[in-house]
Amino acid sequence: MSILADSLRRDIAVGGPITVARFIAEALGHRAHGYYAGGGRDPLGVAGDFITAPEISQMFGELIGLWFVDTWQAMGAPEPFRLVELGPGRGTLMVDALRAAAKVPEFGGAATLHLIERSGALRERQWQTLSCQAPHWHNDFSEVPEGPAIVIANEFFDALPVHQFAATPCGWRERLVGLAEDSEGFALRLAPGPTPALALLLALEADETGVAEVCPAGLTLAGEIATRVAVEGGAALVIDYGRNGASGDSLQAVRGHCRHDPLSDPGEVDLTALVDFAALTRSAAEAGAAVHGPVPQGAFLRALGIEMRAAALSRVADESQIVDITSALSRLTSPEGMGELFQVLAIADPLLPVPAGLAA
Ligand code: SAH
Fold it and tell me: In CATH terms, is domain 3-297 a member of 3.40.50.12710?
């Protein structure tokens, strides 16, 4: 049993079952033994646990870079402005984006780079990739100094803790993580009465499984981003695998590119939940921002010109590289790949025109 599992078991034995959100927060973020904090681990890539769009192809980050420049120009090319990435992983998206954006040198000159990252190992990776842009690191978005901002979050919101609720004859009850019967592992149970998180929920929707998920950390963050861009100018792109409304229990664990039991091995496996774009939209709109989308990732990338970019790269590629480019294009845009499951949402200053790629 992992050190973190052992410590959670002891906490639960003394204090009783904990919320699913607390379990996820500890499993991912525990300062010494959490998945993103502990062990100097790099979870990304073929040798890691999962692979993300910027790690599949440089085309992804490059097109986001063009989106940044287009948005910055629509903002009136402010200087300086904050270029913010939430959860930059290895820094691959940002390095590809900045290379593509270098076609407009004033953009890079005006940007101060702010990276929201809690993992020491990944901060180290990001330093290796992005030191030339002199990044500033923060633990939370709220620490980014004031000023107009362009924000990107790819596969970040799915790592924020969700609470889960089940419909019962007595109304909604929160799902909690307790000790399994054999007291070796963990098991879900229902809270006997209303729990504090229930009060956070305005409208709970369950699907046919009778389970609902809510991500207060995601809603708060969407609200913070919205306030920032509405008050100071700018826009944010949220890209993630998601849903629009009810999904049931979407908590999943991945290790070595395979599904894993979410309650086993906390701290050793990646935990994610589908992002509820309808809920993020409500939260951002209430905070005064304009919200565009969500649109499917495939449609967004095609609107930004991914097919032309793939063709241009293929013209100077050898045969095996052409195979790679074609397969990356399909993986990023096709319905069988990431093209429809992944969605793109923009949270923007209402004074800006509809951001590139997000027109209905
Ligand atoms: N955006 C990158 C990496 C996605 S993995 C890519 O597309 O490749 C999720 C990233 O978010 C990692 O960098 C992880 O360390 C970071 N992260 C997860 N939860 C976080 C939190 N609560 N605060 C700050 N960073 C977090």
Answer: yes
